[in-house]
């Protein structure tokens, strides 16, 4: 008679504990390639990888029920994300197939012959057998220059200046994002990435991509929150069976934005009426508009709170209040 492994026992215990505590996993969105993507994920932009902060956040998020983690080569958090996920796999809390992992191609690697190399670096950083979704981080390409400022050709990814500038202005390269996308399509045949998508694309850029390539992106990840609700883009994408993922879904207070919905008394009143936090209301707003949300936090309590947005609904009147913040 076979016996359960220690890892299997731990996984079963975790399931019983989660059920007993009333926890549930997030709903998922079926992508246009048939895969399921959780409707909320943990963002890791601006997390501090050096002191293990990001890895702890990933572990806390998985314990809270998150099954979607978003990172990028640019963020410098891929290794920490991979470490956090593998630790929870080792504990028996999740299997690899339980978590949806997203990372991104940075703009200095848009040349078609650089795409596979950049992907390989992200794949090695994460060390997770495969990547669920690989995004083109921006439609615009940066010129690939050596980070020491010399005219030498970079010999490795580590030699590349990720933000090349002259007189404070970005140095762009004349690389067509359609050609970059076709190189990303080739990655699908490797089996190491299951979906591809884009980020920061507007409607004209989406139109061109769809008209000139054969694989539809499964998502377009853009900044999205009540002050920038992206409703026309969400409708455009929905009509073409493309999901929209909302980054910075709580707004961007670190950029000195004014009139952020999350800080407004009207939103605070809505939150109080539902016994929720303003952050939960703001996240719920974008979710009800049809976006997948990826709030960033390293605070264990806020990570838990941000996840709990699926047990209430905003009324049409409340949604109208939040619509009023668009572009403020």
Could you describe the 3D structure shown?
By secondary structure, this protein is of the alpha/beta class. It has 11 helices and 14 strands. The protein has helices spanning 6-20, 53-64, 78-90, 112-126, 177-188, 203-212, 231-239, 265-273, 278-288, 300-307, 316-323, and strands spanning 28-30, 36-38, 42-43, 68-70, 100-105, 133-136, 141-142, 165-166, 169-170, 172-173, 196-199, 219-223, 243-247, 291-293. The strands form 4 sheets. An 8-stranded parallel β-sheet has the order 3-4-5-6-11-12-13-14. The relative contact order is 0.13. The model is unreliable at 1-22 (pLDDT under 50).
Please give a handful of descriptors for the protein shown.
alpha/beta; 328 residues
């Amino acid at each position: 008679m076979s016996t359960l492994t220690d890892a299997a026992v731990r996984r079963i215990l975790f399931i019983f504990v989660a059920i007993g505590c009333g926890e549930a996993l997030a709903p998922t969105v079926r992508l246009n390639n048939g895969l399921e993507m959780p409707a909320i994920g943990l963002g890791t932009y601006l997390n501090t990888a050096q002191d293990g902060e990001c890895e702890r956040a990933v572990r806390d998020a998985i314990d809270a029920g998150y099954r979607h983690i978003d990172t990028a080569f640019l963020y410098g958090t891929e290794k920490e994300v991979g470490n956090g996920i593998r630790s929870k796999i080792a504990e028996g809390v999740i299997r690899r197939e339980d978590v949806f992992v997203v990372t991104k191609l940075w703009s200095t690697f848009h040349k078609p012959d650089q795409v596979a190399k950049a992907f390989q670096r992200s794949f090695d950083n994460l060390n997770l057998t495969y990547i669920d979704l690989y995004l083109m981080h921006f439609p615009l390409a940066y010129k690939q220059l050596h980070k020491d400022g010399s005219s030498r050709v970079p010999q490795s990814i580590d030699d590349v200046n990720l933000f090349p500038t002259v007189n404070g202005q970005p140095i762009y390269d004349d690389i067509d994002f359609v050609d970059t996308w076709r190189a990303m399509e080739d990655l699908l045949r490797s089996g190491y990435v299951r979906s591809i998508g884009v980020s920061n694309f507007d409607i004209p850029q989406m139109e061109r991509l769809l008209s000139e390539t054969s694989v539809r992106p499964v998502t377009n990840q853009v900044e999205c929150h009540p002050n920038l609700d992206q409703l026309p883009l969400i409708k455009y994408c929905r009509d073409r069976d493309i999901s929209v993922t909302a980054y910075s879904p709580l707004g961007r207070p670190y950029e000195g934005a004014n009139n952020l919905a999350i800080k407004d008394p009207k939103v605070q009143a809505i939150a109080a009426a539902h016994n929720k936090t303003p952050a939960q209301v703001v996240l719920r707003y974008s979710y009800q508009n049809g976006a997948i949300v990826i709030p960033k936090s390293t605070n264990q309590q806020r990570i838990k709170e941000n996840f709990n947005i699926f047990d209430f609904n905003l009324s049409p009147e409340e949604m109208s209040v939040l619509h009023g913040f668009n572009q403020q």
